[in-house]
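Question: does this match?
>
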Amino acid sequence: TLFRSQTCQSALCIIGYILSLGFLRLLFHWRPEWYVWAHGVPCNLKEADLILLRTTDAFKQYSWKKVTWIYLSGLNNTRIGQQDQPIIADESSVVNRVIMKPDYKVRCILVHKIRYVRDRSEEH
């Protein structure tokens, strides 16, 4: 499930952490789905910065991950003057579709040492 963080909700949670002497934070550690529900609102994939994951085994455990950016600034510096040429020769390559140009950055989440990226061409 996809969520977008809300500043006012996060501020209220921090106040709750202080007033409960950390018990609320401990509760959110035990129940990650409550953490995500308390800090954000449901949204679409393009706006999401928190993702709530649930295992498919018998335990159905929840975890949450932050959506992060990877900046590929090294590619930008080595290809000055070649902005119209793709980074990978194959125009339909997944690598070319996930890189946001001209900033050369990629949105991803890290789950069990594997980075997952969003294919922007499949938004619609």
Remarks:
- The chain has a mean pLDDT of 83.
- The first strand starts at residue 2 and ends at 5.
- The beta strands are 2-5, 40-42, 50-54, 62-66, 68-71, 105-111, 114-117.
- The CA atoms of residues 30 and 116 lie 25 Å apart.
